[in-house]
Amino acid sequence: MDNIRVSVLVSGGGTNLQALIDRLEKGDIHAEIIKVISSRKKAFALERAKKHHISHEVIRPKDFDKEADFSQALLDSLVRSRTDLVLLAGFMSVLGPAVVRHYRNRIMNIHPSLIPSFCGAGMFGERVHREALKYGVKISGCTVMFVDEGVDTGPIILQAAVPVKDNDTVDTLQKRVLQEEHRLYPEAVKLFAEGRLVVSGRHVKILPVDKDGREEIKW
Ligand code: GRF
Question: Considering the entire predicted model, what is its pTM?
Answer without folding.
Answer: 0.95
